[in-house]
Specification:
By secondary structure, this protein is mainly alpha-helical. It has one domain. It has 3 helices and 2 strands. It has helices at residues 16-44, 52-79, 87-113, and strands at 13-14, 84-85. It has a two-stranded parallel ribbon with strand order 1-2. Helix 1 (16-44) packs parallel to helix 3 (87-113) and helix 2 runs antiparallel to helix 3.
Length: 114
């Protein structure tokens, strides 16, 4: 009988898509913070909007948004899987949605500030 004492436990596995969503959303969040910090530093140092550093930071933010959308899709797909744990999928959905809202808010704030 062992440690189970006659009970049979079906251990559900974590969703692979959910784990991928969680990891990608964490990476995107850290990347977004770094890109916004670099952009702020470049603007504070007096660089204009046509400098190569700000253009690359802007392209990085666009790429980050696309990765967050992918993470959101992976999280939704992972949450829809049956017979799998959904915690990483839900966390991936939350973190990627939060990141998209924050970046969108920063874009709106930057547009208003001009």
């Amino acid at each position: 009988m062992g440690l189970n004492k006659g009970y049979h436990f079906d251990a559900m596995k974590h969703s692979g898509l959910g784990i991928a969503s969680f990891c990608v959303s964490l990476f995107c969040g850290l990347l977004a913070v770094m890109l916004v910090a670099v952009s702020g530093f470049l603007v504070a140092s007096g660089q204009n909007e046509e400098s190569i550093g700000l253009i690359l930071a802007g392209l990085g933010i666009i790429g980050d948004i696309l990765l967050m959308l992918i993470a959101l899709g992976l999280g939704i797909a992972g949450a829809c899987m049956k017979d799998r744990r959904k915690i990483f999928a839900i966390l991936g959905i939350i973190f990627s949605s939060l990141g998209l809202v924050c970046i969108g808010g920063l874009m709106v704030l930057g547009t208003i500030a001009e």
